[in-house]
Design goal:
Chain lengths: 295, 405
């Protein structure tokens, strides 16, 4: 076996793959953020909390309704997405005409409230959630042991990311949506219910976060602070990718997962800062982000 | 805004009046300082505040002509925040003693502030054995456990049963470093070998990369020199990556019952761990647990050894203050606490050493299999009791300046 920078290539391939898996979480979460920002111009700071709600929904559905992982994968995003729609109707729609900063502050406050409520109800140390039986175990790829569940995570997130991109950039519904962002009054004149569409879009972005939460439940500690651990990184991903760029968010999510994975091999102590160093560099060189449209 | 001067004077007079009325009562203020909102909040947090209040209740201040108040603060696991709160408590709020303080980095900062202000620090939460080693202070007592004890308990037991090659997953701050250092010493002393380590930032959510490095090391034992959510994440993902299937085993060096509950017995079964207190060991502990669940409004949850240590330390502190009839000189109170033998329902009889180390037995537990657990919280079976005189680092090996003379 050959070596690269003193690391056996075997280990390196393993780390690349792991980076890709983590990247799929970043991609799913930043995708939701990018959709919400791109279509609604809202910086959704509650995204981490909504991801956490997704994971808790999976746990609660199992605990109280006996609904397994597969059921939760469908039901949790629907429920949390519906809560998202309520949030949009109750609060966010009133902020549309104001500076995006107000939306950021509101969602930040919401995130703190939601996290606090969950901590109050369930404590901070987390809830148990097992990998679904059908996906337990794993296979030996020669260079690493790949748990089946992780393979599933990566496959599902690639599909969801692509489907979302396709829906927004390539379908008629997506074109309405993009048009409504550019000129809501004109789109309304064509008989399209813009406020409803916007609320549904926010709900969809939130549902994406909840879906990521359900996917995370079997492998990460299901605790109220699981979202805040991740959300800052995800924001960095969105900034690097370019605010509002859907493809940018997805590709950057996967790429940064890999960068982080490699850092964990070469200099683990820096693994939770490397993304921010990159963010600073990107902001200096390309303030609009790697895939961002110039304002 | 103008405040009527007369009202200010009236209020001031009222304050003086109440102060004068209780002048004969000795006033003591206890500050519980810990993580109220982060990953260690369940281990201590409000649970430790409840334990302190129960201790005050059981001590019965009125019978001793004392007036005891308990306040609390959230240090958010940040040494600067912790040190600031400590300063403000001592300087402005007239706090006499700070208790709990998990997160070693914060505890080391509070340790210095307490020494400077000549108050008292009773560490139930912090693990770093430096608090009774090079950083020992005449104003501090480390109560519940420390890294040397954990290393000696779990580390020794694991090496003795054949786990002689180790790879460490270490939390990258004072506590993790101390725990790894102390455990490595025990491993080497007992004929084992440390093959490598990786320093993971505190609050890492994905350990798979580190687990892969641990797998590549071929070490028999993966030592987890971390705590709380980090330990839970590492073990949960270790199960997923087939660590056990590959013939490797985890040694959780600091595992609390809250972590075991978070993992579920299915994932945590067989894990060996060391604690100094378990809720289901004695009738007194079970009775305390019942009261604690109500006082901290955590029905169905179980106290870790931290709230128990807070309870025990507060009781002993109040006894010492009562004996001196003063809480103002921190050094004198700690000296008195060291002089008096300790005795309370949760930790039984014990004593405090010159270096500030509270001495009591430690217990080596194994996490039960799901089918062995009969009721909620029935998580551990006792594997061995480490007697008090062997559980902690020998007095002369700690390099504590208070001892050398």
């Amino acid at each position: 076996m050959f070596e690269i920078f003193g690391i056996p290539s075997q280990a390196l391939f393993g780390q690349l793959l792991l980076g890709l898996i983590n990247g799929s979480f970043y991609a799913l979460l930043s995708l939701g953020l990018a959709v919400i920002f791109g279509m609604l111009n809202i910086i959704n700071f509650a995204h981490g909390a909504q991801y956490m709600m997704g994971a808790f929904a999976a746990y609660l559905l199992l605990q109280y309704l006996g609904l397994n992982y597969w059921g939760a994968l469908v039901i949790a995003p629907l429920v949390i997405g519906a809560i998202g729609i309520v949030i949009e109707r109750l609060f966010l729609q009133h902020l549309r005409k104001l500076d995006p900063l107000y939306g950021l502050l509101l969602t930040f406050g919401l995130a703190l409230v939601i996290e606090g409520l969950f901590r109050n109800a369930y404590g901070s140390s987390g809830q148990p959630y097992q990998v679904p039986p059908a996906l337990q175990g794993g296979r030996n790829l020669g260079f690493m042991f790949l748990p089946n569940y992780r393979a599933w995570v990566i496959a599902l997130s690639v599909v969801v990311c692509f489907a979302t991109w396709f829906a927004i950039e390539r379908t008629r519904l997506g074109s309405y949506l993009r048009a409504a962002t550019e000129n809501p009054v004109l789109v309304r004149a064509f008989g399209i219910n813009v406020p409803r569409m916007v609320a549904l879009t926010y709900g969809f972005g939130v549902a994406l976060a909840a879906l990521a939460g359900v996917m995370a439940a079997p492998i990460y500690n299901v605790s109220p602070q699981m979202g805040s651990d991740l959300i800052i990184v995800v924001f960095a991903v969105v900034v690097i990718g370019g605010m509002g760029s859907i493809m940018g968010a997805v590709l950057t999510g996967f790429a940064l997962g890999i960068v982080e994975g490699l850092t964990k091999v070469f200099y683990p102590e820096a693994s939770n800062t490397v993304i921010f160093v990159l963010m600073a560099i990107v902001l200096l060189i390309r303030p609009a982000g790697l895939f961002g449209r110039r304002a | 805004m103008l405040v009527p001067t007369r009202l200010v004077f009236a209020l001031a007079a009222l304050l003086c009046g109440t102060a004068a009325a209780s002048a004969q009562d000795l006033a003591v203020k206890i500050g519980v300082l810990n993580d109220m909102s982060g990953l260690y909040a369940d281990i201590g947090g409000e649970g430790s505040v409840a334990a302190a209040k129960l201790a005050v209740e059981d001590f019965n201040p009125a019978a001793h002509h004392m007036k005891v108040e308990v306040i609390s603060g959230d240090h958010r696991n940040k040494p600067d925040i912790g040190a600031n709160i400590a300063r403000q408590w001592f300087d402005v709020d007239h706090v006499d003693v700070i208790v709990d303080v998990p997160t070693s980095s914060v505890a080391l900062a509070v340790n210095e502030v307490t020494r400077e202000k000549n108050k008292v620090f009773l560490g139930s939460g912090p693990a770093s054995s430096d608090l009774t080693g090079p950083k020992c202070s005449p104003n501090s007592i480390q109560w519940t456990y420390d890294t040397w004890m954990l290393a000696n308990g779990t580390g020794k037991a694991v090496v003795k049963t054949g786990g002689d090659t180790w790879f460490f997953l270490t939390a990258d701050y004072a506590f993790g470093h101390a725990l790894e250092r102390d455990t490595s010493a025990v491993i080497v002393k007992n004929g084992g070998k440390v093959l490598g380590h990786v320093l993971a930032p505190l609050g890492t959510s994905d350990f798979s990369s580190f687990l892969l490095q641990a797998q590549a090391s071929k070490a028999k034992i993966i030592g987890l020199a971390n705590a709380g959510g980090d330990t839970v994440n590492a073990i949960k993902q270790g199960a997923e990556f087939g660590i056990a299937a590959g013939g490797q085993h985890f040694a959780g060096l600091l595992v609390f019952i809250n972590d075991v509950e978070a993992l579920g017995l299915k994932t945590a079964q067989g894990l060996v761990l060391t604690e100094t207190w378990y809720w289901d060991m004695t009738d007194a502990n079970r009775a305390f647990t019942k009261r604690w669940q109500i006082a901290s409004s955590r029905p169905g949850k179980f106290p870790s050894m931290l709230p128990a240590g807070v309870y025990s330390s507060v009781i002993h502190y109040l006894k010492a203050v009562d004996a001196l009839r003063s809480a103002s000189d921190g050094k004198a109170v700690v000296a008195k606490m060291k002089e008096m033998p300790t005795d309370d329902p949760l930790f039984g009889k014990g004593y405090i050493r010159a270096d500030g180390r509270k001495i009591h037995p430690a217990y080596l537990f194994e996490v039960k299999k799901p089918e062995e657990s009969k009721y909620p919280g029935d998580d551990y079976k006792l594997r061995a009791t480490i007697p008090a005189d062997e559980a902690f680092r020998p007095l002369n090996e700690g390099h504590c300046p208070l001892v050398s003379g």
